[in-house]
Amino acid sequence: MAAAQTPCVLVVEDESAQREVLKYNLEAEGFRVAIAVNGDEALLMVREEKPDLMVLDWMLPNVSGIEICRQVKANPDTRQIPIIMLSARSEETDRVRGLETGADDYVVKPYSVVELMARLRTQLRRTRPATMGERLTYDDIILDAGEHRVFRSGDMLHLGPTEFRLLSTLMEKPGRVWTRDQLLDRVWGRDIYVDTRTIDVHVGRLRKVLMQNGGADPIRTVRGTGYSLG
Q1: Which of 127, 224, 105 is nearest to 173 (CA)?
Q2: 3-state secondary structure 206-218
Q3: Quick one: pLDDT at residue 89?
Q4: What is the DSSP code (8-state) at residue 176?
Q5: Which residues of the chain does CATH 3.40.50.2300 include?
Q6: Cis peptide before 110, with omega less than 30 degrees from 0?
Q7: Cα 83 from Cα 137, distance rounded (Å)
Q8: Most buried residue, 33, 41, 53, 170, by CB count within 10 Å?
Q9: Helix, strand, coil proportions of the chain in percent (round to 5)?
């Protein structure tokens, strides 16, 4: 179950040696890795896998990395996915073009794997802070992902592992409305079948713990859709 919180990185690279280096180093860092070897496959996997980050080569057969980036960032369902673009093009105009198309970072080949991993972690700290061991705060609630502890108004709360993952997901994006299916994918993982009503049970348990010392309910139920923090 714990793997549900492990970020998934989609590597889009047509050179097999580069793919293997990236896959090896990403898995050594503890990430789940999905692979696409061309643009069409990449766009399909973005829809199916909903990766937490993309490492995207500029030069690809059929659909270029620039076009993939443009399509991913133009889609409201995927535009939040950080994209690190890899390119042998080192001219400033190329870097500007990549960033203006929507890439969140631009790395010139040949690159340092250590530097690339650092840039990747920087992007994930921005979009998936709980998975990177960051401390999250919302109102009087503090979630320390590194220590795996939750406090409200200074009191330590005791959450089960599922409720902890559920709260960390909600706290990463306060105000965002998560559908039940999105929460199932994020908290349980895409490969595990769980009835959507299970979400309601665990939200109920989470609410009970969060309010055990008299605090207001911070979780909003969006009728017919899902849940939001605040």
Answers
A1: 127
A2: HHHHHCCCCCCCC
A3: 79
A4: P
A5: 2-127
A6: yes
A7: 26
A8: 170
A9: 45, 20, 35
Of the listed ranges 27-31, 81-85, 91-95, 137-141, the one predicted with least confidence = 91-95
Find the distance separating the first CA and the last CA of the chain, reported in whole Å.
27
Domain 131-229 CATH (choose: 1.10.3720.10, 3.40.250.10, 1.10.10.10, 2.30.29.30):
1.10.10.10
CB atoms within 10 A of CB 129: 17
**Cα–Cα distances in angstroms (integers) from residue 169 to residues 22, 42, 63, 99, 216, in the given order:** 27, 25, 33, 28, 19
Q: Where in the chain is the domain with CATH 1.10.10.10?
A: 131-229
Q: Which of 222, 218, 221 is nearest to 208 (CA)?
A: 218
Angle, CA 30 vertex, CA 24 and CA 32 arms, to 5°: 75
Q: Which amino acid belongs to residue 208?
A: K
Tokens at residue 168, please? 């960390």
Q: Is the peptide bond before 174 cis (omega within 30 degrees of 0)?
A: no
Q: Which of 27-36, 84-93, 156-165, 166-175 has the lowest mean pLDDT?
A: 84-93
User: Which pLDDT score, from 0 to 100, does residue 50 have?
Assistant: 87
Report whether 212 contacts 163 (CB < 8 A): no
What mean pLDDT comes out for the span 99-110?
91
**pLDDT above 70 coverage of the chain, percent:** 97
Write down the pTM of the prediction: 0.79
CATH number of the structural domain 2-127 = 3.40.50.2300
**Nearest-5° angle of CA 214, CA 130, CA 168?**
35
